[in-house]
Amino acid sequence: MRGSVRGNKLPLLAFLLALGLTAAILYARRSGSTPKPWNSSAITATYVGAQLRELDSGNATVYLAYEVQNHTDSDYQLADGPRALVMSRLRTDGSLSSQEQVRLSYPTFLPARQRARIALEIPSAFNWPADNDPAFQDRLRDLVNQKLTEVQAFVLFDQADRFEIEFPSGWQELKIASVVPR
Known about the structure:
By secondary structure, the protein is of the alpha+beta class. The chain has helices at residues 2-33, 136-148, and strands at 43-56, 59-70, 76-78, 84-90, 96-97, 103-104, 108-110, 115-125, 151-158, 163-168, 179-180.
């Protein structure tokens, strides 16, 4: 009789253990499959200005300067890389586009409840005109406007922290303030 009691407890114990393990796996899958929503108010940005820089005789970069504000109680690191994706929000319908290469110029530490300046950069092939070219300023302005005409804003998605940072336009009346030669 003792052997039969032990024999009955062992399958019951194995069944309960398997049931518990299955429940734990299902719970982990369910809770892990729903990411938290994007937080678009934790970090905000304000447009400051634009600058065009010559990289070499065939390439230029448009730099867009922004002031970013950390509204959280935690320090934040802004850095270009696999966790941060910058996309353009199109003026026509507000959809997002990754057709244009846009990236953060440099990593920035943003302490809790503080502000910092950052820059986005948009590289472009561009044959620089000679300094004495009468259309020099027009060609520079055309390049910048070509890169920005269809863009309503830029949006950075920090996939790890689930932050969505919108970098609004401010370049509607863009005038070339400065050109930085190489």
